[in-house]
């Protein structure tokens, strides 16, 4: 088993978007709130004409596939990730957009001067970072005064908690999805941000998962950072174990807890 913020495992996981895309497709297909988390998140961004935006840990940049056309004129957008593979994927999507730069950046060492950006975004990535305090210091440093930091993450009462409980029932030594140990969640994120920010708000997006094929759930599990090095043969019977949770219509209902912090630099 590996940890969510083990650098070597995170590098392997995100050398391209193959595993990440499978997880995205899973959530897009089986989440019951069809508004969509990315739309909900984008609605929160206070983007204005001339705004300078930095996104860190962008992954395959799917947010901007859908939203680039909605940006006001003269926005300067830097989309970044520490994975070269992810940066290459995103670069291909923005070849014709002069106001978009794609850069390979580690959030723990941002190569920009103090007070450069109006908005900094770090969605679903801070729990992968080895030194989360350093990451927040860097974000705070490159934000202008009154600049806004948006950081989405997961809560401790959602999908991971469900998976962890199922694993513990399956075999009490298996606590792969113990999100209580993660370094940046909806539960502990405020405490982390408070070291640099005074003005912090947290919002939750209501959602859950409904799924009828337990095998799809098992496939999702093996795309995750914490399971990527494990042999599937160790887990014979896991799908049947999930299937026990089916209701009379054959559906497994799984909670999700997902949301974001919005922190303003003053
Ligand atoms: C779960 S994905 C999230 C992608 C995207 N932000 C989203 O919400 O769809 C996490 C991303 O963070 C990147 N990442 C992990 N550690 C990082 C670091 N220290 N600095 C920058 N990016 C990092 C990974 O390469 C990966 O692309």
- Look at the structure and give the CATH class: Alpha Beta
- Note poorly predicted spans: none
Q: Quickly count the helices.
A: 10
Indicate the structural class: alpha/beta
Instruction: Tell me the helix content.
Output: 25-40%
How are the strands ordered across the major sheet? 3-2-1-4-5-9-6
Describe the secondary structure blueprint for this structure:
Layout: H1 7-13, H2 18-30, H3 37-44, E1 52-55, H4 62-67, E2 76-81, H5 84-93, E3 100-104, E4 117-121, H6 132-142, E5 143-154, H7 159-170, H8 189-193, E6 199-205, E7 208-211, H9 214-221, H10 238-243, E8 252-255, E9 258-264
Parallel strand pairs: 1-2, 1-4, 2-3, 4-5
Antiparallel strand pairs: 5-9, 6-9, 7-8
The structure holds S-adenosylmethionine.
Overview of the molecule:
With 266 residues, the chain is an alpha/beta fold. It has a single domain (7-264), classed as Vaccinia Virus protein VP39 (Rossmann fold, 3-Layer(aba) Sandwich). The chain has helices spanning 7-13, 18-30, 37-44, 62-67, 84-93, 132-142, 159-170, 189-193, 214-221, 238-243; strands spanning 52-55, 76-81, 100-104, 117-121, 143-154, 199-205, 208-211, 252-255, 258-264. The chain has a 7-stranded mixed β-sheet. A two-stranded antiparallel ribbon has the order 7-8. The longest helix is centred in the N-terminal third of the chain and has 13 residues, at 18-30.
Please sum up the structure shown:
The protein is α/β, with parallel strands linked by helices and 266 residues long.
